[in-house]
Predict the structure.
Amino acid sequence: MQHASTRGLAKCAVCGAEETQSGTFPMVVGVGRVCIADGMARVKCGLCGTEVKLLTSAKLQGKTLCLSDYMKEIEKFRQHIVQSFDEDTEPLSTILERAGKDAPEGYTLLAVRRGRNSTHVWEAEYEKTELFLMRCS
Ligand SMILES: [Zn+2]
Ligand SMILES: [Zn+2]
């Protein structure tokens, strides 16, 4: 039996070992605190396939990623995204329709506006739906 409630001491998320001194187990994003042995273990990035130490990886939505892929992935979780449409290649009416219909998953369309310094590029701005709902309630 383990005493899960020992205050301040972390347990390794991989093997369950408890640290002997508070704060010695490093934190791995999406995994939790890990012991040094597990932290040095090699894991494979689910995107680029590079082998990295668990310590220099991060877990995102169940996927193990190297830090550079992790940074790229979290970019996708930004609160705002902007998509551009070109009026040269499609009429404005289609752009407006698509901007609303093809909103990225989990995002709500905030506005469609003309791109900066452009006469034909339109930008659709989206906000993460949760944020949008939070603000509106
Ligand atoms: Zn461990
Ligand atoms: Zn990678």
Q: What stands out?
A: The chain is about 25% helix and 30% strand. The first helix runs from residue 36 to 40.
